[in-house]
Specification:
The complex is a heterodimer of chains A (111) and B (112). Chain A is an all-beta fold and 111 residues long. Chain A is 0% helix and 56% strand. Chain A is globular and about 45 Å long. Chain B has 112 residues and is an all-beta fold. In chain B, 0% of the residues lie in helices and 54% in strands. Chain B is globular and about 40 Å long. The chains are: A mainly beta (111), B mainly beta (112). The interface between A and B is medium-sized, with 21 and 25 residues.
C-alpha cells in the first residue's frame, strides 16, 4: 500500500510563487501525477513525473525525487483562477493503470 | 479532445433502491475507473476495468458492482443504496499507451 501526504490548505497572494509538497510511501512506484480540481468540477491533468527531476509546463512545474518519496508542484505568477484543489496521485507498480490519490491541497489565492 | 460523459450530474434516490451510474468515453480507451470523492477523504477507487468484461476491485468495492459490456461504457451499480453512499462519483478513462486519466464531470448522488 501507500500513504500519500500533502498539506490540507494553503494561501498565497496573486502574482506570487507557491510550492505544494507531496510525500508518498509505496512498495513500488510507476509514476506521480498532479491534478487540478476547481470546486464542483472534475479533476484535470496538470503533470506527470516518472523520472527524477523537474518538468516545466508554462507557469506550472513539477519535481520528483524517487529516492526521497517526494514531489512538489510549483505555481508561478499566481492568478486568482489558480484557486483550486491540487491532487497528488501515485501509480503503484503492479496496480494496472489505477492511481492512488492524496486528499488534496486546497489553495486560496488572495488579491 | 477526450470526452468522458456521465449520465447525470445530480441524482436523488431512496435507501434500498438500485442505482445505475453510467459513464461513456469517446476515445477508445482501454481503461476505465470509478471513484468516489468525499470531503476530507479525497478520491477513493471503487472499481476499474482494463478491458471489456474485465473488472478489478479498487480500495472500497463493498456495496458496489460494475459492468463493462462495451469498450466505451462502464457502469457503476449500487445494488441497494444506503445513506453512506451519498457522495460525488467520478468516472475516468485512460489509454494503456498514455498514463493520463481523464475525468468525467461527476455525479452527485444523494441517498435519502
Amino acid at each position: 500500500g501507500q500513504n500519500i501526504d500533502q498539506p490540507t490548505e494553503m494561501t498565497a497572494t496573486e502574482g506570487a510563487i507557491v510550492q505544494i509538497n507531496c510525500t508518498y510511501q509505496t512498495s513500488g512506484f510507476n509514476g506521480l501525477f498532479w491534478y487540478q480540481q476547481h470546486a464542483g468540477e472534475a479533476p484535470t491533468f496538470l503533470s506527470y513525473n516518472v523520472l527524477d527531476g523537474l518538468e516545466e509546463k508554462g507557469r506550472f512545474s513539477s519535481f520528483l525525487s524517487r529516492s526521497k518519496g517526494y514531489s512538489y508542484l510549483l505555481l508561478k505568477e499566481l492568478q486568482m483562477k489558480d484557486s483550486a484543489s491540487y491532487l497528488c496521485a501515485v501509480r503503484p507498480l503492479n496496480s494496472g493503470y489505477a492511481l492512488n490519490f492524496g486528499k488534496g491541497t486546497s489553495l486560496l489565492v488572495t488579491p | 479532445d477526450v470526452k468522458v460523459t456521465q449520465s447525470s450530474r445530480y441524482l436523488v434516490k431512496r435507501t434500498g433502491e438500485k442505482v445505475f451510474l453510467e459513464c461513456v468515453q469517446d476515445m477508445d480507451h482501454e481503461n476505465m475507473f470509478w471513484y468516489r470523492q468525499d470531503p476530507g477523504l479525497g478520491l477513493r477507487l471503487i472499481y476499474f476495468s482494463y478491458d471489456v468484461k474485465m473488472k478489478e476491485k479498487g480500495d472500497i468495492p463493498e456495496g458496489y458492482s460494475v459492468s463493462r459490456e462495451k469498450k466505451e461504457r462502464f457502469s457503476l451499480i449500487l445494488e441497494s443504496a444506503s445513506t453512506n453512499q451519498t457522495s460525488m462519483y467520478l468516472c475516468a478513462s485512460s489509454s494503456s499507451s498514455q498514463e493520463t486519466q481523464y475525468f468525467g464531470p461527476g455525479t452527485r448522488l444523494l441517498v435519502l
